[in-house]
Amino acid sequence: MSVRIITDSACDLPKNIIDEYNIHVVPILIYLEDKEYLDGETLNPMDLYKGMRSGKVYKTAQIPPATFKKVFLEYAKKNESVIYIAFSSGLSGTYQSALMAKNEVLDEYPDLDLEIIDTKCASVGFGLVVYKAVQMAKEGKTKEEIVNAVKFYSQHMEHIFTVDDLEYLYRGGRVSRTAAFIGSLLNIKPILDVEDGKLIPIEKVRGRKKVLKRMIEIMEERGVDLSNQVIGINHGDDLEGAKKLEEMIRERFGCKKFVVNIIGCAIGAHSGPGTLSVFFLNQKPPM
């Protein structure tokens, strides 16, 4: 590849895509009490969800500048052209850490060819942006072409998801204790979105079956040319739910290409088991 793509573990891309395109994924930090883990390396999602179901509370922390500095130095020394595609700055300080590290590396390597892009996206919505970038890099597209595509996909990526238990959003400070209690009591399932990089609740639906139906309706309202898109789906250890959602999308819109994966530890620590998400573009990419 003429352009090297770096990202972080909040992209939640499946391992086969990471391996196929040799994507450099920097892990976000996960904490259980005082013990530190690396997302996807020393802690896997299945163990995280098992722990959460048993009452364990996991915390997350941004990637420190020192980690990014080490990564960026590696490519600076080889004089490679690099794009770091980052997790939303509205949900993590990781993007800011990367900027700090870049400035430090520039002091030593003023010719550093590094572009850092804040996607304002999360999970597989973020992952689809990365996926497009690595496909273009493999095709030999220029850095400018890839950067322009990353910005377009980032700006037009829809994130529609629901959580199975509001308790986990309460722990992360996303909803009040009263809302979590009443929601659980009444079997209310919130539908959330990511807008300008931040988590926004958009609707409340009662019952799992109705919430999936409503997610499909929102896809129809917001999506454009869905049958020709790569659709992202991910889940918090609910593969059956993800398959059901995929089947509904195939039947409704005729979609053929999907990226389906379990939600990684960085996102899953806040959303919890049973989360279901769908990601798609709300505008047709330019030719």
UniProtKB/TrEMBL annotation:
A GO term for molecular function: lipid binding
InterPro entries recorded: DegV, DegV_C, DegV_domain_contain
Residue intervals passing through the bilayer: 258-281
Keyword terms, alphabetized: Lipid-binding, Membrane, Transmembrane, Transmembrane helix
Keyword Transmembrane: yes
Coiled-coil regions, chain positions: none
Its job: May bind long-chain fatty acids, such as palmitate, and may play a role in lipid transport or fatty acid metabolism.
Identification of the protein by name: EDD domain protein, DegV family
Source species: Caloranaerobacter azorensis DSM 13643
